[in-house]
Each structure stands twice: as C-alpha cells, then as structure tokens.
C-alpha cells in the first residue's frame, strides 16, 4: 500500500534526524506529487502517523514532528534507587504527547484570549465540560458553581481564610493529612483540630464531639485514597459524616483529587449526599495527569461564590487560558477517559503488589495501611524505632520513603510513621523495596533496647 510506504519514508527521515522535532513536514500536495498518488493517500498516511504520536497537526498550518522524550528521561535518575518518596503520576504513563496535541489546538482556538485577562472563575466552555465530567463522578452541579483553580491546593488555601455562612472560625482535619494542607494551616495561623484516621476509619463519636464543641466552620477530608494512609471511606461512613455536618452546621470540604482512580462505580462522593452546598467538592488534574499542569476545580456554595472569587482574584487574577483550553479539548476528545482507564489498571496492580509484600514480608506486629488502588500507604514503625533514623538507614539500601511527621498538626506530631507512594516504583521492584524495609527494620530492632508493649496485628485499610 502506498500510504504505508509514505509512513515508512517519514519515519526513516525522523529516525535519521533529517526531520527534527518541531519541523514542519512536506505539504500534502507536494508529497502526493512526489509519490505519484492521490492527496487522500497522503492524508491517510499522516493520520496514521498522528495516531502513533509521531507527528501532530496544527490547524491551517500543517503537520509537525513530535518532540521525543530523551532516552533515560522517564523514571529515576539513579536506576539503583527504589523511590517510594515521590508522589506524582507514573512518569511512563503521563500523557505528554496527547496533551501536546491539545496544547497546539488550544493555541489555535484561544489565540485571541491567550494574552488578555480572562474570567476569574475560568473559561465558561471549560466549566461546561467540567460539569459534564463531574456527572460521571456523581457530582451534579452547574457551570456557575464551578471555579477553575490552580490546583486544588489553591482553593484549600483560600478556604482556610474565608468566612463561612455558618459564622464559625475553626477547622477540623484528618490526622495525618497531606503536608501542603498542614503548611497552609500553619502559615495562616488558623485554629485546627485533628482527628485520627485509622485502619478502621474515623471515630464518629469523636468527630461528633469536635463538631459540637469546637466552633468548626469546615471539616477537611480526602474521601478516597487518602494521603498519606491510602484509606477510602465507605458510602456508609460518608453519609454519616454528612449527617453530622448537617446536624451541627459544619461545612465539609471534600478533596477528591484521586477519585478518578476509583473503578468502583458504586462508590459515591460525599457531595452526592448533600449537593446544596454543605459539601464543597474539590479535585485536581495534577496527580492523575501532569503535575505541572496545576489545574483543579472547586464547586462553590452560592452564598460563598463572590467572596471566593474575590479571594482568587487577589491571589492570581485568573488561571492560565492556554492550559484551561488544552484541558477542555483533552476532556472533550475522550483522551482523559482513555488515560484514566490506563492509570486505574496501573495503580490497582501496584497497590495490590504493595499490600501482598507487606503481608508476606513485614514483621507480624507492624501496623500498615493502604488500599487496593491509589498511590499511598503508611507503616507505623515498631517501638523504639523513629522515622528519621530509620529513613537514613534505608537510604543506605537505596530505598527512599517519606517521614510522615510533617503531615501532622504540630501538637499531634508522630515520629514513627513513614509514608510510601508506589507511583514512581516499577512493579517488579515493589516487593524488593519492601523486603529491604523489613530487613532494615529487623536489623535496627535487634540492636535496639528491649521493646515494651506490642502493636495490634496489621490490618490493611479498605
């Protein structure tokens, strides 16, 4: 077939360096003349090359060679390191080339808006697309309640300082929680009350006491694949938390930034139990796509819409139009849906391998957490081991993990909890990494003073 010959010809030129990344390919008519074939044959060849992400098209301009990722760029800079520390999408699964196509198209579509001030709330066409996307997650809302933000963390930072319709002042957060939330609380000198998230979830009686007695304006929760424990609440737990919030006039900020990884369609977000505005839903596209994208959303209660937009305006005027436009095209094209299916498969396998390695390798009295999907889990080190010293010994074995101390409020800090993320670790090295963790743990326990007391048997989180 002539179109296959054209494809091979173009690929040879690219591989030899004759056609360099970013270079414009010969026009369709000139190539048709050269191969003595129809224009449709060249169009088909270029279309097939575009599907293989070898070239990309720019409207009214032509076809160009895709920038290739340098060999060795993906993955760890040191092949000997097992990196349970980094917490971003699997670098080998990030949709670089798909998103590049969307960026190119966004430049054409939004070229007039790119260099002018845009809507504080975000492009309306993107918010319409986000409303459609959220419906698939059982979050039913309208574009006017959606605000595009620079990652969900921007929204969280603004909410800490904002007055809430209930007139209350303090906040309640899970313990531990992700470091950026803790830093936002400390930076703004907010009064925060912590509630421990365990392998059995939250103590609902304790949560009710906090809501009743501590002037709580909002409760912040990561409802699925919690950072750092990996825990996901059941529908029953989510419903109970919403009922307590309604009873004591507390708002819930539900951070669902890894919710796209949940393949269980029976699981609902808390928002589904009170879409009136009591539950403020936030999510980000950074963790499941491209960390540098820095785009997220918040579904804002109508009474808070103006104050939130004023705060966002003071923060950054508006989120970048180019990345907003590219995300809109990425969602509309169906690329996001296909990408998420791949990501779900990857993290189900990785999480299952991690839990299996814990069960088979760690000492029986060690408590660990996690789930069968998502990025995160924690290990509570046996007494008298401390995370800081343990991590230094692990580094000598080329295994990197995170100290969870910074993920606690200052008055509730723990110094014997480590966090693992499987996102950057190749599947075949997960078990090896856990074996090294267990080995270092046993070595340090053998040289440590006699322990007092025992931990309960390890039970992986739901």
Automatic annotation (TrEMBL):
Which InterPro entries does the annotation name? Answer: Aminotransferase_I/II_large (IPR004839), HTH_trans_reg/aminotransferase (IPR051446), PyrdxlP-dep_Trfase (IPR015424), PyrdxlP-dep_Trfase_major (IPR015421), Tscrpt_reg_HTH_GntR (IPR000524), WH-like_DNA-bd_sf (IPR036388), WH_DNA-bd_sf (IPR036390)
Q: Which cofactor does it need?
A: pyridoxal 5'-phosphate
Point out the signal peptide segment: none
Among CDD domains, the record links this protein to: AAT_like, WHTH_GntR
Q: Which PROSITE patterns match?
A: HTH_GNTR
> Which intervals hold domain HTH gntR-type?
1-68
Q: Which domain of life is it from?
A: Bacteria
* Record's keyword terms, sorted: Aminotransferase, DNA-binding, Pyridoxal phosphate, Transcription, Transcription regulation, Transferase
Instruction: Family membership, please give it.
Output: In the C-terminal section; belongs to the class-I pyridoxal-phosphate-dependent aminotransferase family.
Report the protein name in the record.
HTH-type transcriptional regulator YjiR
Naturally occurring in which organism (per UniProt):
Paenibacillus konkukensis
């Amino acid at each position: 077939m002539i179109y296959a010959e054209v494809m091979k010809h173009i690929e040879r030129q690219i591989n030899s360096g004759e056609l360099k990344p970013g270079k414009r390919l010969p026009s369709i008519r000139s190539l048709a003349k050269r191969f003595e074939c129809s224009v449709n044959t060249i169009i088909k060849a270029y279309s097939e090359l575009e599907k293989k992400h070898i070239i990309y098209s720019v409207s009214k301009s032509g076809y160009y060679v895709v920038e290739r990722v340098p060999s060795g760029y993906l993955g760890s800079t040191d092949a000997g390191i097992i990196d349970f520390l980094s917490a971003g999408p699997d670098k080998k699964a990030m949709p670089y080339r798909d998103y590049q196509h969307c960026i190119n198209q966004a430049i054409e579509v939004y070229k007039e808006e790119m260099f002018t001030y845009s809507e504080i709330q975000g492009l309306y066409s993107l918010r319409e697309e986000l409303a459609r996307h959220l419906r698939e997650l059982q979050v039913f809302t309208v574009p006017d309640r959606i605000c595009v933000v620079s990652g969900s963390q921007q929204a969280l930072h603004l909410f800490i300082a904002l007055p809430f319709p209930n007139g209350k002042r303090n906040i309640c957060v899970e313990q531990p929680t992700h470091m950026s939330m803790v830093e936002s609380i400390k930076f703004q000198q907010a009064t925060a009350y912590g509630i421990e998230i365990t392998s059995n979830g939250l103590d609902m009686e304790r949560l009710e006491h906090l809501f009743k007695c501590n002037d709580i304006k909002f409760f912040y929760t990561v409802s699925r694949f919690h950072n750092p424990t990996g825990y996901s609440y059941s529908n029953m737990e989510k419903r109970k938390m919403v009922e307590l919030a309604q009873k004591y006039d507390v708002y819930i900020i539900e951070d669902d930034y890894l919710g796209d990884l949940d393949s269980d369609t029976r699981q609902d977000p808390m928002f589904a139990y009170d879409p009136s505005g009591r539950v403020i839903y936030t999510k980000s596209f950074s963790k499941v796509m491209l960390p540098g994208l820095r785009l997220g959303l918040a579904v804002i209660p109508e009474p808070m819409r103006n104050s939130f937009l004023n705060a966002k305006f003071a923060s950054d005027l508006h989120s970048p139009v180019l990345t907003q436009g590219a995300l809109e095209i990425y969602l509309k094209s169906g690329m996001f849906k296909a990408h998420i299916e791949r990501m779900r498969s990857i993290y189900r396998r990785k999480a299952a391998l991690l839990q299996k390695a814990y069960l088979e390798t760690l000492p029986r009295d060690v408590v660990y957490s996690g789930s069968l999907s998502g990025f995160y889990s924690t290990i509570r080190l046996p007494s008298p081991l401390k995370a800081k010293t343990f991590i230094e010994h692990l580094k000598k074995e080329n295994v990197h993990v995170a100290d969870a101390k910074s993920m606690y409020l200052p008055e509730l800090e723990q110094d014997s909890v480590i966090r693992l993320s499987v996102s950057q670790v190749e599947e075949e090295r997960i078990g090896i990494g856990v074996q090294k963790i267990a080995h270092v743990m046993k070595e340090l326990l053998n040289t440590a003073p006699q322990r007092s007391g025992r931990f309960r048997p390890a039970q992986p989180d739901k």
